Amino acid sequence: MEKNITVILGDGIGPEVTRQAVKILEAIASHYHYHFHFRYALMGADAIDKTGSPLPDETIEACLNSDAILFGAIGHPKYDNDPAAKVRPEQGLLKLRKSLQLFANIRPVTHYPSLQHLSPLKAALLEGVDMVIYRELTGGIYFGEKTISEDGQQASDNCVYSISEIERIAHLAFQAARNRRKKVTLVDKANVLETSRLWRKAVKAIGEQYPDVTLDFLFVDNAAMQLILNPRQFDVVLTENMFGDILSDEASVLAGSLGLLPSASVGNGGALFEPIHGSYHDAAGKDIANPLGAILSAAMLLDHFGAHEAASKVRMAVQWTLENGFVTKDIDPVNFYFTSTIGELIADVVQDKIPLELHAENIRLRKSTII
Ligand SMILES: NC(=O)c1ccc[n+]([C@@H]2O[C@H](COP(=O)([O-])OP(=O)(O)OC[C@H]3O[C@@H](n4cnc5c(N)ncnc54)[C@H](O)[C@@H]3O)[C@@H](O)[C@H]2O)c1
Ligand SMILES: CC(C)[C@H](C(=O)O)[C@@H](O)C(=O)O
Ligand SMILES: [Mg+2]
Fold first, then answer.
1. What are the structural domain ranges in the chain?
2. What CATH code would you report for 1-102+258-371?
3. Would 34 disulfide with which of 1, 17, 261, 268, CB 3.0-4.6 Å?
């Protein structure tokens, strides 16, 4: 297998977690004799500092000419704290998603029994939690017209959806459900929003083409509660752009940390893989961020290439680190390992240098001290 991968490190913890994901892809390439060619491109605050633009043309060009994109995170407090900033890192990411027509953002939520203690939920509620959020990514309130009045006293963000934008992601959600527990839950606000009523109408009609899949509906306020109250009821959650953004961060609490959740963004051709978290600036450069969301995004990239055995090897290695207590500070604030150490361990496991049967006490590693 020979593939070109564009890597966008981004800002804050983006570079350090993405480097671990690249490390794992290199280890997989060496183990399976694949040829992955990595090409680095700029986006976000880093790109603004270096080029003046949050998404230079060369980055779009590189992404269009690659088989997949591996991305870390963008964002910087200097923009977060300046509502008047004219150019923002986030504009780069939104433009990239739109330019590549990455209309479906797939965010799996996995429960790891070894991380049970981190969730505020009782074990009985969490056991067997396994859902995937299909978040529409190139429409809705993120992309509608924005206005600010001349006197700065009024602003608006328009939420727009066309039926075809809804139908194309609905098909992907139903197809995914067919290979899972055959249930789609549409999350909307159809009691208030016209766009949500269009979603209900369109998704109901598409659902008739998938009679083997159960379709149900939840208002987003209720869905936010149900995620905590009874998360096992969810299989495929289908929703619009902003609801999906919010609900997926909430769902990461079921897994144990925001640093654990990966994602794949797909659409008309392109494919981008990124953890769902942001640039978490307080941790930048400290080697303490959890790299597993980025590494599991690399596993989704391998699945996209059809390398399913390699992808499942990465997931098993991730599970092995968690079960053996090789975890970052967000998981265990006292006995934690560095971001780069976790990356090296997983790279060794996927190359069979450390057998999965080997337990933590037999591995000598330099554990972190208080930072
Ligand atoms: N896709 C993206 O690039 C993306 C996603 C979300 C936020 N952002 C940007 O990131 C910046 C910071 O936003 P925020 O603070 O709301 O969200 P964030 O995801 O960066 O961090 C929120 C909290 O989650 C935890 N966290 C996140 N990632 C972690 C990791 N890998 N390991 C351990 N803990 C982790 C930390 O406790 C952190 O304080 C903003 O500029 C925002 O716009 C970018
Ligand atoms: C940074 C921001 C634009 C982005 C989003 O809202 O899509 C982020 O929160 C995400 O989840 O990828
Ligand atoms: Mg988000």
1. 1-102+258-371, 120-255
2. 3.40.718.10
3. 1
Domains 1-102+258-371 and 120-255 share a fold: yes
130 is catalytic: no
Catalytic residue among 249, 303, 332, 348: 249
CA 326 to ligand 1 centroid distance, Å: 22
Q: Is 17 in the pocket of ligand 1 (CB under 6 A)?
A: yes
151 CB neighbour count, 10 Å cutoff: 6
Active site residue 183: no
Count the Cβ atoms, other than its own, within 10 Å of residue 105. Answer: 25
| Tens-digit pLDDT profile for residues 212-270 | 999 999 999 999 999 999 999 999 999 999 999 999 999 999 999 999 999 999 998 89
Question: What is the Å distance from ligand 3's center to 297 Cα?
Answer: 15
Question: How is domain 120-255 classified at the architecture level of CATH?
Answer: 3-Layer(aba) Sandwich (3.40)
Sequence-ordered list of residues with C-beta below 8 angstroms from that of 271, at least 6 positions apart, any chain: 67, 68, 69, 102, 264, 265, 301, 304
pLDDT tens by residue, 292-343: 999 999 999 999 999 999 999 999 999 999 999 999 999 999 999 999 999 9
> Is the CB of residue 307 less than 8 Å from the CB of residue 335?
no
